[in-house]
Amino acid sequence: MIRFGAFTDTQADLVREQAAEEERALVERAKSHADAFEELYSRYYGKIFSFAYRRLHSRELAEDITADVFMKALDALPRFTWQGISVSAWLYRIANNRITDHFRRKGQSGKGVLNIDDVKTLVDERPLAEDRILASLRRREVEEAIGKLGEQDQLVVTLTFYEELSSPEVAQVMGISTNLVYVRLHRALKRMRRVLERESAQ
Question: What mean pLDDT is reported for the chain?
């Protein structure tokens, strides 16, 4: 059924297919044209940096990791083969591997409480209406609930809701099956819900 102002499933699928085909063409051009790789860099730098920053809580480390991701991508691009998954998922996987290596070298886990003040919220410098304040507080509670999850649960939630990757893309980044993505996401959301319910009851 078509609803005014909304895509049908068929229209949404068509948009995704067109975007995927455009990205595939861009990747193929980037293998031999520097300007096309620069376009890939411009398109995905901010996303990869944000992902790294959320995991590392350090601008300097996030910048280093992001730069390394694109250096590795540039080196590996001639061997990149299109498998129906977006190139962004490939970049996220490189970033995730580098971040995991960093924590392993430091003897740390990738689990940590998010720095709420450094994450985008609905708050700005203008006077806040009541609904904006409530929305901001709720966002803060959600961020804190995510911070209480285990490393892999944090990762699946971050990739799904912050980075807006599809389940097959999340699976590629994490190196697990799509079915396991669904299981982990469901488990993570249940744990977050319990945390939020406990805090609301206090």
Answer: 77
Alpha-carbon Rg for the chain in angstroms: 19
Residue 179 to residues 26, 99, 147, 175: CA-CA distances in angstroms?
Answer: 30, 24, 24, 12
4-52 pLDDT, tens digit each: 444 555 766 677 677 777 888 888 888 888 888 899 899 899 999 999 9
Three-state DSSP class for residue 113? coil
CB count, 10 Å around CB of 152? 16
Structural domains in the chain (count): 2
- 17 and 106 in a single domain? The answer is yes
Indicate which CATH number applies to the domain containing 198.
1.10.10.10
pTM: 0.69
Q: What are the residue ranges of helices labelled H in 33-86?
A: 34-56, 59-76
**Count of beta carbons in the 10 Å neighbourhood of residue 55:** 25
**What are the tokens at 131?**
């609904």
CA gap 43, 80 in Å, rounded: 18
Choosing from 78, 110, 142, the residue where a domain stops is 110
Give dist(CA 51, CA 192) in Å, integer.
20
Work out the pLDDT band at 87, boundaries 50, 70, 90: confident
Q: How far apart are CA 166 and CA 76, in angstroms?
A: 23
What CATH code is carried by the domain that includes residue 7? 1.10.1740.10
Return d(Cα 16, Cα 71) in angstroms, integer. 28
